[in-house]
């Protein structure tokens, strides 16, 4: 489903054509702002390796569909191939290239592997790959490597893919990252104007946006899908909550109310026979189970099994088919797109998992935090819901532990002992024309594999690192001009050539036996910044938690 058609899917059973609601977004590459048309032309010419990044609901998939359609209408010399990575799973052991071929063969039965290979080598295809961030964690590292391998092996074929923002793309050889920008006010007004909705109510919302509502809630309304949800929320409540988790709570309440025929006191019965509270409880448990399994889209059998597990855990004697009817038809929080069911917005899944994290006390916060993905909004919503719980039960104890471990370490002499608490490897990359200005011509970047055996030991520490990163831009996991040796030294240390720079095969593990290499690469300065920032964070957290505790104790004593 096109994210930009969300409201139509809530209001009607028929989808809205892309061209009816599409509003071209803008993009940012380094300091350059580009229109969708300009980026499309560059991808076909200079930027033949492009990662389009954006937040959930920002229109990444819609832009790729626009790109696919545009390449056909304009008669480009490439044959576009649109492939959705969500269709991959760990059971199918075929390579990404094989599965892309099979997706084409489904529509062109006479198409052969030999023709596909010939077209790739000749540069006849335009690979448009959607939703790297929606692949399961056990597949993501492998798929990322395969995309990079395809890019190197078939340099004549343009490759463009989408993902939520991630630092890992710094290490992708030859790829340029195009950041999809939020809608500005003009784009937002144009988009809302195109949505199929009651004209009087829509006009009232547009007037509020023109006056001050856009500036007051720019974080929400600048996101196409959230803007559509905001229209419904505004219609129901006459206002928009400022806090993200409250906004999604209101959105969910709107979806529940959409189930009713009118504003009267009569409420239609759900297919499942549940009341509102029971349905929300079942939905939350379904979100928890699916989030823990890294399932963001489902085949019919998969979703029935997960719903069945949720109902069994809760002791509800309800037919899973009936609850699925409620979630897709009655409240439209799930939708069917081809052979798959998915959330109308993945943030609903994250919101309900965050509610579980904050309300549950059976599991420790560390246990629940192990399941977070960096690209998600879960941790931000948890912090917003209960900052004290997050800081007291997880962040401060973890920071204390790291600082004790780092206390006697000289970061500039033994950077590996600090770095490998967060990252697994060091790699090199060549600056592209549109990369950030602070990158040297050849730079060093640090990454952690998404393979479970590599990721899990560092996962909790990474939560601390990402928290730090929000407040310290100089902690981004790559070297800066003042830290980095010249190109010849970098290539020599990584034992590679300029053409092969960035290949995973040349990675240097962050281990003691590579210590001298890491020091030469400038890792000591990065490690020192991390150590100093952690020390500062502990002092601030100690002060904050102490103040919070004293304030609460005083109020409790006053009411004795």
UniProtKB/TrEMBL annotation:
Recorded hits in Pfam families, A to Z, give:
NACHT
Top-level taxonomic group? Bacteria
Q: Which residues form the NACHT domain?
A: 48-166
Output the Gene3D superfamilies linked to this UniProt entry.
Answer: P-loop containing nucleotide triphosphate hydrolases
PANTHER family (UniProt xref): SLR5058 PROTEIN
**What is the name of the protein in this document?**
NACHT domain protein
Q: Which organism is it from?
A: Pacificibacter marinus
């Amino acid at each position: 489903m096109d994210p930009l058609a969300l409201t139509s899917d809530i209001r009607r059973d028929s989808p809205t054509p892309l061209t009816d609601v599409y509003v071209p977004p803008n993009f940012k590459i380094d300091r350059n702002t580009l229109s969708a048309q300009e980026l499309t032309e560059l991808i076909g010419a200079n930027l033949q390796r492009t990662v389009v990044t954006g937040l959930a609901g920002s229109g990444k998939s819609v832009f790729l569909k626009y790109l696919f359609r545009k390449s056909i209408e304009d008669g480009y010399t490439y044959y576009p191939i649109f492939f959705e990575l969500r269709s991959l799973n760990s059971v199918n052991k075929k390579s990404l290239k094989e599965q892309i071929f099979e997706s084409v063969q489904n529509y062109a039965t006479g198409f052969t592997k030999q023709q596909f290979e010939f077209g790739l080598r000749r540069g006849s295809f335009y690979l448009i790959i959607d939703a790297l961030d929606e692949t399961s964690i056990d597949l993501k590292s492998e798929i990322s490597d395969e995309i990079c391998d395809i890019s190197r092996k078939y340099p004549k074929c343009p490759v463009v893919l989408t993902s939520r923002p991630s630092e890992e793309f710094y290490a992708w050889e030859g790829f340029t990252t195009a950041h999809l920008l939020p809608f500005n006010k003009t784009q937002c007004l144009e988009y809302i104007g195109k949505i199929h909705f009651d004209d009087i109510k829509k006009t009232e919302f547009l007037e509020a946006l023109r006056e001050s509502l856009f500036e007051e809630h720019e974080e929400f309304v600048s996101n196409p899908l959230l803007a559509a949800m905001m229209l419904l929320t505004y219609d129901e409540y006459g206002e928009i909550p400022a806090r993200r988790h409250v906004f999604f709570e209101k959105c969910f309440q709107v979806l529940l109310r959409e189930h009713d025929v009118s504003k009267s006191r009569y409420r239609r019965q759900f297919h499942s026979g549940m009341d509102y509270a029971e349905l929300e409880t079942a939905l939350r448990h379904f979100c928890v189970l699916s989030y823990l399994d890294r399932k963001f889209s489902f085949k019919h059998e998969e979703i029935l099994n997960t719903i069945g597990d949720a109902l069994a855990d809760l002791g509800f004697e309800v037919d899973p088919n009936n609850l699925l009817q409620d979630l897709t038809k009655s409240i439209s929080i799930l939708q069917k797109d081809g052979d798959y069911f998915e959330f109308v917005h993945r943030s609903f899944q994250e919101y309900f998992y965050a509610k579980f994290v904050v309300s549950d006390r059976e599991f420790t916060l560390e246990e629940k935090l192990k399941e977070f993905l960096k690209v998600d909004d879960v941790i931000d919503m948890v912090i917003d819901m209960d900052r004290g719980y997050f800081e007291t039960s997880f962040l401060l104890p973890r920071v204390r532990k790291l600082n004790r471990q780092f206390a006697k370490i000289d970061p500039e002499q033994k950077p590996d002992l600090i770095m490998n608490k967060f990252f697994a490897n060091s790699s090199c990359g060549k600056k592209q024309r549109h990369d950030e200005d602070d990158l040297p011509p050849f730079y060093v970047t640090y990454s952690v594999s998404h393979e479970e055996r590599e990721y899990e030991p560092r996962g909790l520490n990474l939560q601390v690192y990402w928290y730090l990163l929000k407040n310290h831009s100089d902690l981004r996991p790559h070297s800066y001009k003042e830290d980095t040796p010249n190109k010849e030294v970098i290539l020599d240390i990584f034992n590679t050539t300029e053409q092969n720079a960035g290949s995973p095969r040349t990675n240097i593990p962050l281990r003691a036996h590579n210590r001298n290499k890491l020091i030469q690469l400038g890792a000591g300065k990065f490690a020192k910044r991390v150590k100093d920032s952690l020390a500062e964070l502990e002092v601030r957290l100690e002060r904050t938690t102490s103040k919070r505790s004293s304030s609460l104790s005083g109020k409790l004593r006053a009411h004795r």
